[in-house]
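README, section 4: Worked example with a bound small molecule

Sections 1 through 3 covered apo chains. Here we extend the same pipeline to holo records, where the ligand is supplied as SMILES alongside the sequence. The molecule in this example is NAP. Nothing else about the input changes; the structure line simply encodes the ligand pose together with the chain.
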Amino acid sequence: MALVTGASSGIGRATALRLAEGGAALQLVARRADRLEQTVAAARRHGVSCEGHVLDVRDARATTELVQQLTERQCPIDILINNAGLARGWDDVVDADERDWQEMLDTNVLALMRMTRLVLPLLRARPYADLVQVGSVAGVQPYPRGAAYCASKAAVEAFAQALRQELLGSAVRQLVIEPGMVATEFSEVRFHGDAPRARAVYEGLEPLSAEDVADAICWSLTRPPHVCVQSMLLMPTAQATATQVARRPR
Ligand SMILES: NC(=O)c1ccc[n+]([C@@H]2O[C@H](COP(=O)([O-])OP(=O)(O)OC[C@H]3O[C@@H](n4cnc5c(N)ncnc54)[C@H](OP(=O)(O)O)[C@@H]3O)[C@@H](O)[C@H]2O)c1
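The generated complex, written as structure tokens:
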């Protein structure tokens, strides 16, 4: 059974549906009830059991209650996809809005760390288990006007590296996936709903799709238990680094 955060859109939704296709039962988390329900319905069409939980992962109490409930029901969680996250704003550090920083750090770092801590006992109780941390190329190649987002994803890398050493000797594998540009609602969220500005990010090149990332995650999950894909930098062919892309001339 897999627990996927941020399953109402983008990478989380695509990964949930790929897992459903492979027969996994699902526990899905996001804030937007209507969009979450659409993923739940689509997953159930694959014939698997799927429950949606409307939850803001920044809410420590609600997150703790959810995991307690899953524990009491003896839900056999053997996959955690820590995907919920966002970039907010595109500013030099001096001009940045601290509310954007707070939202990114609370979601991308603290909530991911908390979810990991709470779910780990469930993962450890399984014969084999997988923990997938959705990082970003931003966590390994920081770029200007994204300092706080890059810092949040670098924190995911450091957290995961430390945890990996604690997990040694257990049957829990941990993957940190670091995607480059993926066409999801990500840029629209980053630009506070400015759709034309978000579309321009992907103009003249073919970005990754959410399904491409889901495919890479599911590939790592389906390796034999003695094989652990520790990290994966997954880029569109048209992107060399976090900031260097090849765009077709207009
Ligand atoms: N797209 C890219 O280019 C890219 C590249 C590298 C890494 N990533 C990472 O990939 C992950 C998924 O992003 P995406 O590209 O798929 O963007 P997306 O389409 O905007 O999806 C983000 C998901 O996270 C959920 N979420 C955000 N804040 C949440 C909160 N406080 N509580 C619960 N759920 C929350 C959203 O659901 P609700 O709004 O319904 O809560 C949504 O389902 C993020 O961690 C992002 O940093 C994206």
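What to look for in the output: The longest strand covers residues 172-179. Residues 5-12, 29-32, 35, 56-58, 83-86, 107, 134, 136, 179, 181-182, 184-186, 189, 210 surround NAP (CB under 6 Å).

Section 5 describes how to batch many such records.
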